[in-house]
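user: can you give me the structure for this one chain? tokens are fine.
assistant: on it. calling the predictor now.
[tool input]
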Amino acid sequence: LYVNVQPLSGAPANSAVYTALLQPGDTIMGLNLNDGGHLSHGTRINRSGKHYKGVPYFVDPETEQLDYDDIERRAIEAQPQIIVAGFSAYPMIVDWQRFREIADKVGAYLMADIAHISGLVAAGVHPSPIGIADVVTTTTHKSLCGPRGAMVMTHRKDLARKLDRAVFPGEQGGPHLNTIAALAVALRLANTEQFRELQRRIAQNAQRLAQKLAEHGLRIVGGGTENHLLLVDTKSVSHNGVHLSGDMAARILDTAGIVLNRNTIPGDKGAMNPTGLRLGTVWISQLGFGDAEVDKLAEAIALVMNNCTPFTYLGMKGKKQLRAKVDYASLQRARQMVRELRGQAEPKSLSMTLEVRGKAATAFLNNALTSDVTALADGQAQMTHLYSPGLDVDAALLRVSADTYRLRFLKPADAQQAHDWLAALSDGYVDFGDLHAKIPGPVAVTLLPVDWLEEAAGLAVTAVELIKQLGKEKKETEYNPFADSKPFFIGQENRPGGEALPEFGWEEPSDAPLKRTTLYETHVALGGHIVDFGGYEMPVRYKTSVMEEHLAVRAAAGLFDATHMGVFDASGPHVVEFLNVVTANETRSLKVGQSHYTHFLAPDGSVIDDLLVYRLAKERFLLVVNASNNDKDWAWLNGVNNGEVMIDGKRPYARIQRPVQLRDLRDRQWGDECRVDMPIQGPKSRDIILELCDDDALARRIKAMPWAGLTQGQLAGLDVIISRTGYTGERIAYELFVHPDKAPALWDALMQAGEPYGLKPAGLAARDSLRTEAGLPLYGHELAGDLGLNPADAGFGAYVKLWKPFFVGRDAFIAHEQERDRVVVRFRLKEKGVRRPDKGDPVLDGKGKVVGTVTSCSIDSEGYLLGQAWIPISLSKPETKIWIYQMGGGTRPLRVPETIKQGARMPIPAEATVLTRFPSRKKK
């Protein structure tokens, strides 16, 4: 036997074999990755699949075991140069001789990769491929119980030299002599009866674990195991049609102290969404586990998994993201069982004080405790209260700094329970009464070993006085630990209500005079066709056609007037908390210089408006809202900020605790800080902006700016906030926020600089056709309006972050989502030159049944009519055929002849095709 012990690990060992025996482009045949194969066996994402042609074989979908006849059929068809018999996650005995027969039949080398089972092979627990396979590779750190290294073995003298040369110098440099020495020790141990007994115990423990998990209701892939590993199908656990994912199961078990890994199993579509768990019994067998310990481990695993509740979040492009929460009592019981298996005592501390540290400490504690934590300054303390399973207790909270708090209890047992609960909340996997919710984190929660009152006496004077009141009758005005009107805290259902705030009401003013932007005269001079839009006189198009303006944006650039849109700013030390309440997206995730799209929702879940939020500084944000909703949005924000309107239908007394400063930046009272919006959109827009930039540092920032980024500087000598955002679907697109009085000068400078690039002014009609083509929503059409559509209806549910424990309209949004069976889609009419469908026109299925309604329609870049419609989800798959009657939004009736005879004309709906929700785009 010829053995090379130099490979650094399994993948390099396999690569060396391919280098020795194959030529680039040769075919490697290995088990499909999702069925238990390994990356280095010819997968496309690995070097083995990039330099060579990988062809997979599969397990039988019914038995989930190797079907050797099917492997033979596939080998004859593929004619591989090498067949790899080796697996990353296959729990059954391998028939090496059958693989040899298949390889001989097609003239292929046979390589056995026994990385996972080499210890079992060495002990005779699993049949050996030595002398059967041309080459055998193995790692040495799995069931062989040695160092992290690998070996390449062959009984063929004619291959030995090739293999040695492929390892060095072909694959790597000098050997790791320390690893080789450790391997020598491991191999000597492997030749002992003690090692052979360990391997027998490993296999027995695996079989026992599989049996017990199955008894607890968890499906074992392949029906069991014959080696050291087993696979559990996490789809065994489901809730409301949502199954537990392998990723969530592995993460949650990790918090219980049970470490294993997610893994694909037969039937999975890819490694990104596995539905299996891979468990090996080598380490627990080395710890001396027998039947009793394995039974308890199986019980702990099943206890956690069976008490997980899977659910989903809406991801980008409508994809659902699998998540799960676990019952806290079950998690704690499993942790206790793990401690017993490890021989560890129940944690008991004499400390009565917790320390909570982390950037999210303030927000974390404000959600976990009943008091208004945001009211504290450094060195201040307050009474608070903690609700958790089995705990309902007062405490004193001291703020050391914005990132560090100390929480004092009267009893060490309470402190220990609080520690466990808060740490579990920080992990984010325990169910605290709302599956979707997760409080901000993570934070570090520790029990202090010494009395922090003595250690930090200078900071804790107030806390000392508060603690003295614990256990005594407290004066509500001075020591009340409850801020019951906070928008959210865990345990709020245990508290009494308060006086309900009035619902927000808004009526649009009638016969309001039309307004003009500072660009009105500019539009008139350019020949703009002026119409009423959002209460302003605005250009719908210019002397050119709508199609010319549309194509200019797609090919070069278009300049738009959006100075009629509302521009607010919100600032102050509690501005993030405020915006997180009034908007549905996650404000905390925004860094300075970033922006995102979001929505104002009412308590009933209806859409007040959609908007963009820009983070200008740590405590300052810019909010850009629709012109038609400007006054309503302003009234809503101020009503919430002042605690004057209801924000939660279930807790109508809830209100903002810490107001912020709100400013309407179109109001001239703010002087030089006033801002209006001027978008320039299209592939040449960056070049045009750079023509007006004399500052090299600003130019570099503009060139490097990612999508949704922003910066500030001077263009054409004017102070401008520059964001890479837009409403056209173009990725090279900018919005320029300038003082309203300076807007005409900036417009003229851009038009002059942009003339060589093909820049054109673009009106409202082109903006509408561009945003419709891109699948973007318009308030009153794909959002709100007669249909009452919400962000998920419009295909933008991913911008509603349900992990936030509270934002206005959250409960109603969740309730709507549970019942929603419709969605907005893009469609395109089959023929050109037909009447344009209007908002409100009926959509029909193939049987002539009215199933939906058109929400928008305009011309696309190819001259077809492209629109959006609200239809059943079952019809939303791209390429689905639908039909539309063009009825002018209900103003034109269908003309059906009184008698049907030869020559009569029956109304025929226009045929259309459902498109992808959003057009595909290249990253720019």
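assistant: here you go. The chain has 26 helices and 39 strands. The first strand starts at residue 2 and ends at 4.
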